[in-house]
Amino acid sequence: MPRKNIRKLRNPNDAVVQQARSDDILIPVMGPTGVGKSTFINNIFSKTGSSQCAPSSDGFASCTTTMADYRIQVPDSVAARFPSTRGRCLVLVDTPGFDNVTVSDTEILRRLAVWLASAYDANMKVGGVVYMYPIYPGRITRNDVSNIKVFQKICGKGGLSKVILATTRWDSCPQESGPNREKEVRDNFWNTYPDAPSQAESMTRLENSPESAWKTVETILERMEDSGIVLALQEQLVDTGKSLPQTDAAKELRTKILHMLRDLNTDGSQARKKRLEDLEREAKDLKVPLSKKIQGLFGIYG
């Protein structure tokens, strides 16, 4: 049975793991909104002729706002290379990204927490994690870095050691800009992680093709531990019994929210007022202590 604090965290319509088996190979697919996570999963199924399909968008807008998992048996050709996977299933988890235009960051984290905790409670272990990031266009913003830090806290040290950083949008990136953009992404992703793996171990250039998607999965299988790994968010919620606001991921998200409050300009527009109200609500959900100075600065009152 789920632990008491997990039951309190769940809403009636929350997605949780389905058809769980303890020998399943769990692969969460994470990254920014609209980066192509659903397309990646569909490419995995395309090569096997499966009819399963994850809803995907054609542009940078996200169509994933809830957790969804997709199960596929490890093909014989793959099992021949990785004998420990024979007869087992991959469970690819499509996750919503932060900075979604319709769902708050705190709600995204809650949905992630509920699903991951339900999987851990069902004795499923993570084989590895795919974190997708677009190589083009634009530069990495402070908000992007904040989201990466939240992801790192979701994984913890053990989880980060099994992350594949998959860069996308290579078909749109000028050839001469690619290497510098790739270095920028890697540096920003690993700069707070003291035991960062080498680029060859941790990164892949992900093309929009079944072959490239399977190459990424096979890299995870090659590095996978037989017993799997437990992500920090799972351990803190289920084993330690922490509430969501007490977890490392929620604390990091609180830092992001406070930065966003301070960075908002003071033009007095309706859009700004609405954004402040949204951020205040998120701050309260995560039990962020807002000082009187900050409350007064932005017109937020108890």
Strand-helix topology:
Elements (H helix, E strand, L loop, with lengths): L3 H6 L15 E6 L6 H10 L21 E6 L2 H4 L9 E6 L10 H17 L3 E2 L2 E6 L7 H19 L2 E6 L9 H13 L8 H4 E3 L4 H14 L8 H8 L8 H16 L6 H16 L6 H7 L4
Parallel strand pairs: 1-3, 1-4, 1-5, 5-6, 6-7
Antiparallel strand pairs: 2-3
Protein name: G domain-containing protein
InterPro entries: GTP-bd (IPR006073), P-loop_NTPase (IPR027417)
GO molecular function: GTP binding
Search tags:
302 residues, alpha/beta, 7-stranded mixed beta sheet, 12 helices
Q: Low-confidence spans: pLDDT under 50, at least 5 residues?
A: 59-63
The SS-based structural class is: alpha/beta
**Could you spell the SSE succession in H and E letters?**
HEHEHEHEEHEHHEHHHHH
Helix content: 40-55%
Gyration radius, in Å = 19 Å
Rounded to the nearest angstrom, the distance between the terminal CA atoms is: 38 Å
Which oligomeric form is depicted? Answer: single chain
How many DSSP-defined strands? 7
Beta percentage is 5-15%
Shape: globular
Number of helical stretches of at least 4 residues: 12
| Overall pLDDT metric | 84
The profile of the biggest β sheet is: 7 strands, mixed
